[in-house]
Structures are given as structure tokens and as C-alpha cells.
Amino acid sequence: MGALDEPLTKLVGDRTAKVLADSLKLRTVGDLLHHYPRRYVERGQLTSLDELEIDEHVTVLARIEKVTLIPFRGRKGDRLEVVVTDGRSRLSLVFFNQGWRQKELRAGAQGLFAGKVGVFNRTRQLVSPDYQLLDEDATASTGAGSAAQQFAGRLIPVYGASAQMPSWKLSICVETALTKHLGDVGEPLPAELRERHDLIPLPEALELIHRPRSQADRERAQSRLRWDEAFVLQVALAQRRAADSALPAKPRKPRAGGLLDAFDARLPFTLTEGQQKVSAEIAADLATEHPMHRLLQGEVGSGKTLVALRAMLAVVDAGGQAVLLAPTEVLAQQHHRSIVEMMGDLAEGGLLGGSELGTRVALLTGSMGAPARRQALLDMACGDAGIAIGTHALIEEKVQFQDLGLVVVDEQHRFGVEQRDALRAKGEQPPHLLVMTATPIPRTVAMTVFGDLETSVLDQLPAGRSPISTHVVPALEKPNFLTRAWERVREEVGKGHQAYVVCPRIGDEEPAADPKAKKKRKAVEEDFEEVADLGAASDERRPPLSVVETAEMLVKGPLSGLRVEILHGRLAPEAKDEVMRRFAAGEVDVLVATTVIEVGVNVPNSTVMVIMDADRFGVSQLHQLRGRVGRGSAAGLCLLVSEMPGGSAARARLDAVAGTLDGFELSRIDLEQRREGDVLGQAQSGVKSSLKVLSVLEDEEVILTARTEATRLVAEDPDLAAHPELRTALESLLDEDRAAYMEKG
After folding, report:
1. What is the pLDDT of residues 357-402, one digit of tens each?
2. What is the SS3 string spanning 537-558?
3. Distance between CA atoms of 29 and 205, rounded to whole angstroms?
4. How sure is the predictor about 85, in pLDDT bands with cuts at 50, 70 and 90?
5. Which residue has the higher pLDDT, 518 or 639?
6. pLDDT in tens, 95-130
7. Strands (DSSP E) along 150-305, which ranges?
8. Helicase C-terminal domain: from which residue to which, for each copy (predicted)?
9. How many Å separate Cα 494 from the centre of its chain?
10. In the beta sheet, which residues pair with residue 363?
């Protein structure tokens, strides 16, 4: 497969290669051939123009409806306006001082038009777009010859492109690569696997994905390329699973009549069926001689912390120690308080009045005073603290354990692999690992589907939890709805309950608005004829609402007379703790906060949450946030306030959150919108994904079948000695960063 590693400079020249590298990160022939078309268009099948997103680089197929040359008033120059249509909607193309284009841009002609979508006077537009006409007698503006002849009898590929490299220029580069190097493409899939699953050879798949003559050609190519991505990735994961299973770990079996039994006997309620099932799965893993690597997925309020605590007590019972790593001090303190309360005198081992079966529960955060910090470090090092709870402070080099047996990571997407790895390295042997999350981020969903993590699911809510109703409040379209939202807050407080108001910003961090910038923008808007691109200038949004400003507005306005306080990450630790203590004690009616209250905060008396600028939060965040209400016997209410218009993608996201309480369904929606991220890397979005045609939502059957095939092959040939081209494909997939990620994961 060496030819695919050839630099593009040899194929397309230095100038074009630089554009491909800078704008699309394509540097080799292999990169180019694996840059598949984003979609395909057929002659006569026009692009739906009303679905174009502002600020997106697009390539559209449309028909020219009207061409107008407008001279500038009182000075030299002109503006050429071209209106194109899909038959329903219109898009404006604007060219400055290029009146000569009238000769080729004629009404009735069809063409591909590429540029960045802007907006002016509420009309979508492309300013000075690249284009390629598809009339039989028209030649391309790029000088590449007749587009009609170039794409005769084929679907027209539309590539993910850039301003410097429109789709049809990419087509020319790809055509050159296919002509020169298609015969040099290797075959990573074993022949017997291709035969079993009726897959075409890779060179044929690459030809058909870039140059299909029919939809059937495209589907055959995609079917083969999905298998390449799924199988090579599954081989990497199978090798890692095999390596993990060979690592030694100390079995941790709780003793009869020990700490875990004593804790269970004191529980004032019965575990749900789900909690019992998941606890049994974890107990079985802890009893093995290889490290557990398990994801605990549970709905907000499903009792994940209780299940994790029982696992930690089992490890302490077996003579080891357990650590709970939390992403924020507020959450670490909350966990510490609730665990100590649940355990009672079992959390006072060795202390006066403590149970003889008990242990100590240490808390370690970055802001603790020196005496408390020294005591926590001592208790962990000597083993008196069987359970340690803390933030990133637990990862510091000076933190030591006598016998670390279990690491529990809460809200695992908040931590990097390096941080988890540093904590696990504190055990003499690899400790067992349990990661918890309420709504998986996209990469976690992907890893789960790929079978890299053993997964336990809690989908039952414990008795006593109340339903949460969620509604979108369109603040601009229906301002009376926002007025009613504040009335609902007053009504709930009047019943003796409490409320949260969540804002995306603290409010004391931004400098004052630059008056020069405002003046410049005003001048830009007034003198459109001299501006090349007004998309960003005319579509600016106001800054997100802040805690400080919102609290002041509420105190002076709709919530005057209520006890309103603020909470955010830049308050001193003592101040944060005091605010949360007073709120939990019912001494505060309304808490205006940032997402610092997103996870772990448990105040059963809170029944209503108003999330301001809700469109600025992700799906997972919104689901987590609303889980702070409805934790007691009274029903919960969550109001998502947004100024985004109906029909926009942002509003669709909010409607989805309002439409379901199912965290699994929301994670799928999140994944559809953000993609799965790089399954083998640290990117948390689809930007750097190694998956191009494979979807973890739509192709689960392919993925699971590929997992079975990969597991079988790795068991027979762990080092892939008999499959050199597969090994080469694996090395290409696992660059240095991804390989390191796999090692640490």
C-alpha cells in the first residue's frame, strides 16, 4: 500500500497540494482516495435551497432564474446579481465588478455553485461563488472543460470542500489519483471474509464510490467501505481486549457478614431489580483475576451512586481501597456528604463510636486547608480510609494508597484518558475500573456499540421519584410565555418548594463591548456595495445570558421578594459550600447558577428549573440539568427558554429534549447531530473521526458481525502475521496519538 502514502505534491503539484493540506488536511494519495463524496446529485435533481445553514460552505445544484447588472451610484464599478432556484426557494449570487460573467451566467442554465452561505436583508446569498455550468455548450469557469461531458452518464459527486477548493476541483484531483494509483491499492480484508459477506474488492469500491453510474454502484461501494472501517477498527479493539484479558488483577470478593452485608442491612428501601442485576454483574467482574472495565449507564436519578458505593464496599471488604473521582468540587463534596450519611457509623472505622466493621471515607479536593489535606493523605496512604472521594487532586503524585483495588469515575466524559490512567497507575496491580454516566456523549455511545466496554444499564427509577415535564419557552415569538414561566416559579415557591435558574455564563468575565467594533459593524451594514461577505456581520447573536445579570434582573423584577442567591465556579470554595448548604436547608428560594449544578446536586425539595438560552447547551447537558428537579415526592418542571426561531436546528434539539426523558434516545439524537467523534482518539466531535461511511447508529449489525470476525481472526493470529495488508491498514488507522490512546484506555 506504499503508493497510497505518496505525497500529493507528486500527483497535483505543490500549489494544489498545499491547498488540499491546509484546507482539508489531505496530504497523501490515500487521504484523497478516502475523502469520499458527501452526497451525489443527478442532472435535474436540484438542491433544496431552504435547508442551507448560514456560514456553511456548500455546493448546490440549481437553475439560474434571473441575472441583473447593477451599476454603483456615483462611482465606477458594478454588482452582478444572479438569482438561482430549486423551483421553490431562491438563493442570491453576488459578484462585484465582474459584469463580464453575464455572457455565461444565462437564465435557464443549470450549474454547480459553491461558496459560504451568508445572509443580507433576510435573503440567503453566496458572495463571489465558484461555479461550474452543466449546459452541454458551456465550459467551466475553471477551464476544466465541459462539465456535462465530464459527468456524462454518472451521478455528480459533491465533496466536503472549502472556499479554496470547490467540489469539482476535488473531482479533478480524485480522477487523477484513480487513473494513476487505483492498481496500487492493497486488500486489507481476508479473501474468505469478502466471500462470506459478498463484498467487492477495494479498488473497485474506490472507483465506484467516486464515480458511480447508478445508486446501485454507490451502495455496493459503501457496503464494502463500511466493512473496511468496521473490521479494521474491530481488529484494533479485539487486540486491546486480548491484551487487557492477559493483565493480572487481584480478585475482590466481599466476606460474609462483612461491611457490605452490614450496609445492605441498614438500607431503608429495597434495591430495584435493575440495581440488583447490575450489582451482580459488577460483583462477578470484581471476583475475577483480570481488571474490570465496565461502563455503568444510568438515567438521572436511577441510583448509580448507590450501586457504585456497594462495589466500593465489596472491595474494602476484601482488604482493598476504592476511589471515587468526581469532576467538580461541588460534586465531590456532595458525594462525600451523601455517602457518609448513607453509611452512618460504618464511615467512622477506628473512631470513637464507629462500627467495628467500618472504614473511613476521605475527601480530597484542591481547595482544602493544609491540616485536612494532610489527614486525608495519611488516611489513604496507611489504608485507614477504605474509600477516598475527590477531584483531580487525587491524581497528584503525592497521593498514595496502601492497596488500590477499584477506581470509580463519575461523569467520565469530563476526564481525559491520561487522568484516568494516572489514577489507575497508583495500584500495585491494575485496579478494577467502573465509569459512570447518565447520558453518554457520542464517543461513549460509539465505544459501547463497538463492544470495547462491558456495559451495565440502570433504566428503572427508584420508588419515590417523580416525573419531570419539560417545555420549550420561545422568548421572542411568545414573550408572554416567559412571563408565565416566572409566575410558575413564584407558584412553586409559594407551595414551599424551590427553584433553579441556569445560565450559560457567569457574567463578570467579559470586557466591556468595544465601541469601535460597533461603529465598524454599523458602517459595514450601511455600505453593502463595498463589502464582500456580510453573512457573519448580519447574523451576530447577543452574548449569552449570565448568572450575575439574570439574578439582578429577577430580584428587581419578576421574582422580587423571594430569596435569590447565585452559585458559580469562581466563587470561593467556602462560599460555594455555604450557598449549597443553605439551599439544601431550604433557606434559599431560587438558586441562579451555571452548570456547576449539572450533576450530583440532590435537593429533593427543588421542583422547577428554568434554563436560560437553553439552545447554547448540549442535549446531554440539558438532560443532566433537568435531573436536578423532581427528586422528591412532588412533580418536576423544566422550562427551556430560547430565542431561536421555530424550524431551526437549535429549536429541533430543544424539542427533542422536551419530547422524551429517555437518556438512551437523547444520546442517539446527540450522536446523530454531532457524530461519534474519533472512536480511537480524544476528539469529542466528528471533526477528526476515522469513520467516514460507517454509522454507529445505522450500521450496528455490520459492526457486531465485524466484531465476531475480528475476534476470531485475532484469536487465530494475534500479531496478524498472515495478514500483512490488514496490519498495514491497522498501522495507518492507529497513528501515534491514537495508538497512545489505545494503550492508556
Report:
1. 999 999 999 888 899 999 999 999 999 999 999 998 998 889 999 9
2. HHCCCCCCCEHHHHHHHHHHCC
3. 16
4. very high
5. 639
6. 999 888 888 898 998 888 888 888 887 788 999 888
7. 156-159, 293-298
8. 523-672
9. 39
10. 389
Neighbours of 343 (CB within 10 A): 22
CA-to-CA dists, residue 389 to 299, 455, 561, angstroms = 22, 23, 39
Beta bridge partners, 170, equal none
Which residue carries 433576510 as its cell? 122
How far is the C-alpha of 390 from the C-alpha of 323, rounded, in Å? 8
Distance CA 198, CA 223 (A): 10
How many angstroms separate the Cα of 216 from the Cα of each of 140, 205, 695, 716?
Answer: 29, 12, 19, 35
Tell me how far CA of residue 512 lies from CA of 61, 507, 508, 523, in angstroms. Answer: 44, 11, 10, 20
Grouping H, G, I as helix, E, B as strand and the rest as coil, residue 355 is coil
Instruction: Describe the chain by its helix, strand, coil percentages, rounded to 5.
Output: 45, 20, 40
Nine cell digits for residue 416: 481525559
Taking Cα atoms as reference points, which of 428, 422, 421 lies closest to residue 401?
Answer: 428
- Reference 342, options 372, 296, 305; nearest CA is 305
Helix (H, G, I), strand (E, B) or coil at 622: helix
Q: Which of 374, 367, 381, 307 is nearest to 333 (CA)?
A: 367
φ and ψ at residue 146, rounded to 5 degrees? -70, 120
**What nine digits make up the cell of 645?**
426561531
b/e string for 217-236 if b means 16 or more Cβ within 10 A?
bbebbbbbbbbbbbbbbbbb
Three-state SS at 254: coil
The CA-atom distances, in angstroms, between 451 and each of 222, 237, 488 are 23, 8, 45
Angle at CA of residue 63, ends 169 and 78, nearest 5°: 80
Q: How far apart are CA 680 and CA 735, in angstroms?
A: 10
C-alpha cell at 185: 491499492
Q: What is the pLDDT of residues 713-731, one digit of tens each?
A: 999 999 999 999 999 888 8
| Predicted TM-score (pTM) of this structure | 0.69
